[in-house]
Amino acid sequence: MAILEFINPLNSDWTTWGLTLLSAFFIGVSKSGLKGLSMFVIPLFAHLYGGKASVGIILPCLLMGDLMALRFFYKSANIKLILRLIPPAVIGILVAVFIGAKINDVQFKYTMGTAILVCVGLLVYNEFKGKINISESKVFGNTLGLTGGFATMIGNAAGPIFNLYLLSMRLPKAAYIGTGAWFYLLLNSFKIPFHIVSWETINWQTLQLNLIMFPVLISGTFTGKKIVGYIPEKPYRYFIYTITLLSAILLFIR
């Protein structure tokens, strides 16, 4: 009985427990290079554990994934490229902390989904025409930072937005993954105290579940890194565009 309580601290049914471990694997795969795959985990966890509670369960796993991504790609990272996004993202997180419990989920999802679809359109146009320098626009950068900070606090749903910004810089895939890992690590670390003290979505039981998820997640990071190594640069960019687009659509039906 004690063993069962240790491996299943939230007393979930075993189907939920199995889906949780499978989700941990996909978070690892996503963090090590196949960006966007973890977006499919977010609505699943919301269904299994409830919207707000699921955010606290996923967050430590995202942090572990960020650390593993840096282990693989830290030499290629360039943190200077994303420092300008930190201040507006922090403001977005702080705003979300105070109004997160009152936000209209339907309106938020539709607004976010529309914004991401527009950004995808701009980036696809830029991919073929090369006339829009999105990463150098202060207005665009501040808007992405603020919106993404809000989205990442509300539901860990900012991946597509920040991925679009990084893609606009046309970084090689190793630099793209490593730079993104630094950015997500900084933001996710900043969110932890609010989940513990303000929202109370991280506690000893959820952390115990995270400890069970971590080995599976880490195996996912090694799998993701291996897969990324076989994908050429240009097809990799198109893959990220596709996953980002699907993530945006998912926000409408989540």
Give me some keywords for this one.
about 250 residues, mainly alpha
Q: How would you describe what is shown here?
A:
The protein is an all-alpha fold and 254 residues long. The chain has one domain. Helices cover 77% and strands 0% of the residues. The protein is globular and about 60 Å long. The termini are far apart.
Class from secondary-structure proportions? mainly alpha
Report the biggest beta sheet as strand number plus sense, adding barrel if it closes. none
Q: How many structural units, i.e. domains?
A: 1
Percentage of residues in strands: under 5%
Question: What is the strand tally?
Answer: 0
Question: How are the elements arranged and paired?
Answer:
Layout: H1 2-7, H2 14-31, H3 41-49, H4 51-73, H5 86-99, H6 105-129, H7 138-155, H8 159-168, H9 173-198, H10 204-229, H11 233-253
